[in-house]
Amino acid sequence: MSNIKKQSHSNRLSYNINASEKAIYRIQSQTNEERSKFIIDTFIDSFKDGIRDNPDAFRTRFRKMAATSFNFYRGSAVLFYQDLKIDKDPFILKHNAAGQIFIHGDLHAENFGTYLDSNGILNFDVNDFDESYIGPFTWDVKRLCASINLLCYSKGFSDDDIQKILTVCIEEYLKQINIFCKQSKDHFALTLKNTSGKIKKLLNETRIKSHIEHLNKMTFIEDYNRKFIRSKYILNVDNILYEKLINSFQQYIETIPDNKKYWNQNFNNKELTYKIKDIVQCLTPEQVIAFTMFSSAEHRSTDQVSLTVVRKSDGQSVTFVLNEKTRIHDLKHELKRRLKPRFDRGCRLIFRNQVLKGKHTLKHYGIKKGVNDQAISMDDTKDSKSSSSSSSSSDSE
Question: What global pTM score does this model have?
Fold first, then answer.
């Protein structure tokens, strides 16, 4: 907490026999010089290979960390655990299994977001699992609370308010864990079906975004294969590293269970083939691998449709890949975000002489998967706006 008072008494729950105090008290007892040396030594010990191989990338990283307290906290998970490992948790001592959990490893307040799960369902959950490992589950909880404390402090919350916020966070966490313990289901996810408010709004906004547009900014097609666009930041890897990555990927493929190697729906139980199509090196401490999954079947069937909206006045077009159950008002919302000048609510969207109404889905108007040349005309002429205004009450936005 931000108002923790310095204490000098020893703590019998310390991991380290030479550390007579809990981590927070040990940190507070250090001089600035001692603390600085500990931080530098921790970073060097953890990142020395990366710093030696790519010093520019780490200079950039450390500059970003120096901008704010929260940025520093985000980029220094290794330091957090070097400090925290001194504390001896009595609950973990009594329940050894609780200290052997596959934890997130960097659970801070900005590591939440949306993604598609293995079944193609959009979830809101924690993300960024690159620091996951086996450890006490309480470390995730402590790191999350510390990050909330930093964010609240940076926004000017009082110590009492921060205390209340953290108390609510922990109480709700314990309530939910208790609910999980009383039910038999092994899986739970926050989806469009069971959320409301801001989380549901975020899921809906994510649902109508075009992944194709983002992909095209990073890649190009050559000889019918998708590859990364090279630049001064995206480079080829050397032959030795290339072979190591290929071999490592093949070893990974061998670990995939047999029931995961076949796509039963629409693939006629034919075995999938996984191949690495391109490998590049980013000027960051990690490499990026692009690979494609495909089989002898021509396409994997989905509920996604490709369509283009063309504005009548200037010919500007926007291409989308959306679910056929997307409602027209969601499409209009995305048009407002992507069109310049912005989409006018008075404009009419027309598909095959039908004026598209906000409450209906794309599928309702015959915009379906597997249909080519699905172009929607956006009529933004004066006559269109005047005629549409009279019917706006029936077109729910």
Answer: 0.55
Tens-digit pLDDT profile for residues 124-143: 999 888 888 888 888 999 99
The whole-angstrom separation of Cα 42 and Cα 208 is 43
The better pLDDT of the pair 391, 321 is held by 321
Spatial distance between the Cα atoms of 362 and 338, rounded to a whole number of angstroms: 19
Q: 197-207 and 328-338 helices cross at what angle (nearest 10)?
A: 80
Give, in order, the Cα–Cα distances in Å from 344 to each of 68, 332, 365, 374.
40, 9, 22, 22
- Positions of E strands within the chain: 101-103, 112-116, 122-126, 133-135, 219-222, 225-228, 234-236, 273-282, 287-294, 304-311, 317-323, 348-351, 354-355, 375-379
Q: 3-class DSSP state for residue 133? A: strand
Both structure tokens of 193 = 């079906």
Beta bridge partners of 177: none
φ, ψ of residue 394 in degrees (nearest 5):
-90, -10
- Burial category of 88 from C-beta neighbours within 10 Å (exposed 0-12, middle 13-18, buried 19 and up): middle
Distant-in-sequence, close-in-space partners of 94: CB < 8 Å, separation ≥ 6: none
Q: Rounded to 5 degrees, what are φ and ψ at 112? A: -125, 145
Beta strands 375-379 and 304-311, pairing class: parallel
pLDDT at 301 over 70: no
Kindly report which listed range (109-118, 176-185, 199-208, 339-348) carries the lowest average pLDDT score.
339-348
Nearest in space to 208 (alpha carbons), one of 105, 338, 295, 90: 338
Q: Which CATH architecture has domain 304-389?
A: Roll (3.10)
Query: What's the chain's Rg over C-alpha atoms?
Result: 27
CA pair distance 108, 82, nearest whole angstrom: 17
DSSP 357: P
Q: What residues does CATH 3.10.20.90 cover in the chain?
A: 304-389
| Cα–Cα distance for residue pair 141/119, rounded to 1 Å | 28
Asked if residues 308 and 319 have their Cβ atoms less than 8 Å apart, the reply is: yes
